[in-house]
């Protein structure tokens, strides 16, 4: 009888926890069977090993360069959450360049914004980060999504559990 009572006491907590996890948005891109799970830093070490692989990567936009027939978006990579949003609070996983067809309006891809892309690895290019030499994996983008602040916060709860006394002013 005691275990039944204890189980009943835990039930509201478990239901609340389940409802909070159910609020997270679904991933925006579907992973393919040949998806590469390596980070940009790992791909930069041996790009030929991952050539042609599909990726879903995300991170923070560093800069946009418009060239005569395409645009390139330099990204600082971050791991993605279950909804494929970049986790900017984690440490970076290297840099990569997203290759977009045509002209990319820099106002649509502002420096500092968070973005997720799906695409295909298409080689690498030597370059520099500051004065340091760097190898950038190149990703031919199939799709890209720049996240808004509202989208980044969607599905994140404002409920915190803990012991103690606190005062919150909103």
UniProtKB/TrEMBL annotation:
Residues 1-24 form the signal peptide. InterPro entries: OMP_Slp. It holds the Pfam family Slp. It comes from the Bacteria. Keywords: Signal. The keyword Nucleus does not apply. The keyword Secreted does not apply. This is Outer membrane lipoprotein.
